[in-house]
Write a structure and sequence with these properties.
- Essential for recycling GMP and indirectly, cGMP.
- ATP binds at residues 27-34.
- Residues 20-198 form the Guanylate kinase-like domain.
- It catalyses: GMP + ATP = GDP + ADP.
- The protein is of the alpha/beta class and 199 residues long.
- Helix content is 42%, strand content 20%.
- It has helices at 10-15, 33-43, 73-79, 100-108, 119-128, 142-152, 157-172, 186-198; strands at 21-26, 48-49, 53-54, 69-70, 85-91, 94-99, 112-116, 133-138, 179-182.
- Helix 2 crosses helix 8.
- The structure holds adenosine-5'-triphosphate and the ligand Nc1nc2c(ncn2[C@@H]2O[C@H](COP(=O)(O)O)[C@@H](O)[C@H]2O)c(=O)[nH]1.
- Adenosine-5'-triphosphate binds next to helix 2 and helix 6.
Length: 199
């Protein structure tokens, strides 16, 4: 049986200096969130990266339990009412969610916990954890975003179209978040994220 912990509020976090903090990295698909995240984790292995649950099929090279926990739609839909997700959303035809218990345990043990998630989930986290640091990653241009999604070579034409369509809406929401960083020069963007998290 998995124990469901209460969601931490801003007040709880402020009153308990030993508690960790959530950091949310969001932005359109293909902007480079995952690549930036991996580099950030190499520089700072003390960060805890939350492995998400998804109903998407694994891409070549993706490992269950490391890239994602890959589960069926039926299983995901069972887990939602059981309160297993801190946030969840449907994105480009698949479900994605953040495992609640693992993340709350890490925060409670004082860790900085990093989530790399899409817009709707990031909004849910902002509502539940007002003290979370939220960072929106922007592409230098829409054309460059499309180039990056295509150069990754891992999505069907249909998936690319859905992701680009969604990206137009997501980019409009950038101002909702604490910090906006343009991922043009990779190292500059990485340094900017590092400064936002540790500065
Ligand atoms: N600053 C950059 N300049 C050029 N290419 C980049 C830059 N940052 C990332 N990329 C490349 O863009 C592609 C997409 O990056 P990545 O998969 O990290 O995006 P993402 O935002 O995590 O996408 P998704 O949300 O769909 O998982 C990759 O091929 C990556 O190497
Ligand atoms: N709301 C959530 N979004 C998530 C989560 N894990 C990943 N994502 C986002 O989904 C899209 C698509 O990812 P891909 O791996 O299929 O390219 C991307 O924006 C991810 O950041 C999650 O747990 N919750």
């Amino acid at each position: 049986m998995i124990r469901v912990l209460p969601i931490q509020s801003r007040a709880t976090t402020k009153e308990s200096p030993n508690l960790g903090r959530l950091i949310v990295l969001t932005g359109p698909s293909g902007v480079g969130k995952g690549t930036l995240m991996r580099s950030l984790l190499q520089r700072h292995p003390e960060l805890y990266y939350s492995v998400s649950v998804t109903t998407r099929s694994p891409r070549p090279g993706e490992i269950d339990g490391k890239s994602y926990y890959f589960i069926s739609r039926t299983k995901f839909e069972q887990l939602i009412p059981e309160g297993e997700f801190l946030e969840w959303a449907e994105f480009a035809g698949n479900y994605y969610g953040t495992p609640r218990e693992a993340v709350l345990n890490q925060i409670n043990s004082g860790k900085l916990v990093v989530l790399e998630i899409e817009l709707e989930g990031a909004r849910q986290i902002r509502a539940s954890f007002p003290s979370a640091l939220s960072i929106f990653i922007l592409p230098p241009s829409f054309e460059e975003l499309e180039k990056r999604i295509r150069s990754r070579g891992q999505d069907s034409e249909d998936a690319i179209a859905r992701r680009l369509h969604r990206a137009q809406e997501e980019i409009k929401a950038a101002d909702e978040f604490d910090i906006q960083i343009v991922n043009d020069d990779f190292k500059t963007a990485l340094n900017d994220i590092e400064a936002a998290v540790f500065g």
